[in-house]
């Protein structure tokens, strides 16, 4: 599979480095609005072709999959552009700015029978399957509640503060605790309660979220761009609890019984960077003619965006053009 990378920023570099170590995938092309930047990127990461416009790369018949890794505010535009050029897409999270955009992208992909996927890597990591299996075995009994947090001191990053770039903690960081909660409890959310502290520019810098799920299950979530957190998830059940170390890139899972005794422990599998799992999922889907991924189906992509729309509505956070 030959991948075209749309955008040449930090996350594009991580993706190119990942693909460089994969056997059945090639970092074939990179596109930037700045040709010199694209050429420098291609030379450093051993990418075969460099383009100074997105349209030019999308017109290359040898590009099998387009990886969109521009700012959040541009994901919709660039995915639609790729699909209009009949290219399958894998877009970085947050998938779009809002659910309306997500529905439109997915509708176009369905119409054209093209793969549309979200690169929320925690959905694809092998440790997600380990967690699923622990829950299925009912080691902690019935799970009733969970907590999850993700905070990094990134307020100094310009795009995080800019509403025009869909900035704020929620779309960049809060999306991970939300996905963690939905991976455990599903997507039947009955109520959403929240609060946030906003920056002078009008985006959320810290937030607190409570999701109530069908069956009386509750998730307490937090994200912030002000501080460093332990990034932990914890799932509390009738016969014990699970400690999930780093919801952003699992470093281990510990399982405790009701007497707080450690009964099971798991360490992560060796990865290239972790990005390879979402790429491989796309490769297999294309090979099999699928247009969505089982790890992050279209219904889940839209539901996550709907949750974040509701949260921003509660906070009075709106992006230009909405």
Automatic annotation (TrEMBL):
The protein's UniProt keywords, in alphabetical order, are: Oxidoreductase
Database matches in InterPro entries: Gfo/Idh/MocA-like_OxRdtase_N, Gfo/Idh/MocA_domain, GFO_IDH_MocA-like_dom, NAD(P)-bd_dom_sf
Any one Gene Ontology MF annotation carried by this entry is: oxidoreductase activity
Annotated ranges, domain Gfo/Idh/MocA-like oxidoreductase N-terminal: 1-116
Q: Does the keyword Oxidoreductase apply?
A: yes
User: Organism's domain of life?
Assistant: Bacteria
Similarity remark: Belongs to the Gfo/Idh/MocA family.
Q: Which SUPFAM superfamilies match?
A: Glyceraldehyde-3-phosphate dehydrogenase-like, C-terminal domain, NAD(P)-binding Rossmann-fold domains
UniProt protein name:
Gfo/Idh/MocA family oxidoreductase
The organism encoding this protein is Sphaerochaeta halotolerans
Q: Which residues form the GFO/IDH/MocA-like oxidoreductase domain?
A: 132-243
């Amino acid at each position: 599979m030959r991948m075209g990378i749309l955008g040449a920023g930090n996350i594009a570099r991580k993706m190119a480095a990942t693909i460089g170590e994969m056997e059945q995938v090639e970092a074939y092309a990179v596109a930037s609005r700045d040709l010199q930047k694209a050429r420098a990127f291609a030379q450093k990461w051993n990418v075969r072709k460099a383009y100074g416009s997105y349209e030019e790369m999308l017109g290359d018949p040898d590009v099998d999959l387009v990886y969109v890794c521009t700012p959040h505010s541009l994901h919709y535009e660039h995915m639609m552009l790729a699909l209009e050029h009949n290219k399958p897409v894998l877009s970085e999270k947050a998938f779009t700015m809002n659910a309306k955009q997500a529905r439109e992208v997915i509708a176009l992909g369905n119409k054209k029978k093209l793969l549309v996927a979200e690169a929320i890597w925690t959905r694809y990591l092998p440790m997600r399957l380990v967690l699923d299996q622990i829950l299925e075995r009912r080691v902690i009994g019935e799970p009733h509640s969970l907590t999850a947090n993700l905070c990094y001191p990134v307020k100094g990053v310009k795009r995080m503060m800019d509403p025009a770039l869909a900035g704020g903690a929620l779309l960049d960081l809060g999306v991970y605790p939300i996905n963690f909660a939905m991976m455990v409890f599903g997507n039947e959310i009955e109520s959403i309660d929240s609060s946030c502290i906003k920056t002078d520019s009008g985006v959320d810098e810290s937030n607190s979220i409570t999701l109530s799920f069908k069956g009386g299950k509750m998730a307490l979530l937090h994200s912030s761009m002000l501080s460093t957190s332990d990034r932990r998830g914890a799932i509390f059940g009738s016969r014990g609890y699970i400690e999930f170390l780093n919801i952003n890139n699992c470093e281990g899972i510990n399982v405790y019984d009701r007497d707080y005794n450690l009964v099971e422990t798991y360490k992560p599998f060796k990865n290239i960077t972790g990005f390879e799992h979402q790429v491989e999922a796309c490769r297999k889907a294309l090979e099999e003619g699928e247009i969505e991924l089982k790890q992050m189906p279209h219904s889940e992509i839209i539901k996550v965006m709907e949750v974040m729309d509701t949260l921003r509505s509660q906070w009075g956070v709106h992006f230009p053009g909405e």
